[in-house]
Amino acid sequence: MALQSRLPEAVLEELPRELLDLSDAIAALPAESRAGVESAYANVVDAVRRRRRLLSLVQEALAQLRLDVKYLMFDLDVTRRERDELRQQMDDVGDPNDN
User: Fold this and answer.
1) What's the alpha-carbon Rg for the chain, to the nearest Å?
2) Alpha helix (H) ranges present in the chain?
3) What is the distance between the alpha carbons of residues 17 and 40, in angstroms, rounded to a whole number?
4) Whole-model pTM above 0.90?
5) Nearest 10 degrees: CA dihedral of 3, 4, 6, 10?
6) Which partner from 6, 23, 44, 54 sits 20 to 30 angstroms from 38, CA to CA?
7) How many other CB atoms sit within 10 Å of the CB of residue 52?
8) CA angle 73, 79, 81 (to 5 degrees)
9) Are 14 and 49 in contact (CB under 8 A)?
């Protein structure tokens, strides 16, 4: 007889295999033993989901930061080139030997 999972399919896909195995083991317990363990299991599942969401947010923020740094480096490079060109133009205009 196959045991039916109590978790929605979307939750099952995001949980580690060990938690799914634990869920199966909890489902196999007698009803009087299962009640206390199920609440602890639910807390662990919530913690895992929160950590995954947090990790996803951190990864997204890090990717955005990397992109921002690339844009800033490009902007810095262009600004330096423009500065050097303007200095060269100023030196050419201010050079008394051009007469």
Assistant:
1) 31
2) 9-14, 17-27, 31-94
3) 17
4) no
5) 120
6) 54
7) 13
8) 105
9) yes
Cα 27 from Cα 17, distance rounded (Å): 15
* Cα 9 to Cα 11: distance, rounded to the nearest angstrom: 5
**Contact in structure between 44 and 11 (CB atoms under 8 Å):** no
- Please name the residue that has the structure tokens 């602890």: 40
How would you write the pLDDT of the chain (99 residues) with one tens digit per residue? 344 555 555 544 578 999 999 999 999 999 888 888 999 999 999 999 999 999 999 999 999 999 999 999 999 999 999 999 999 999 998 766 655
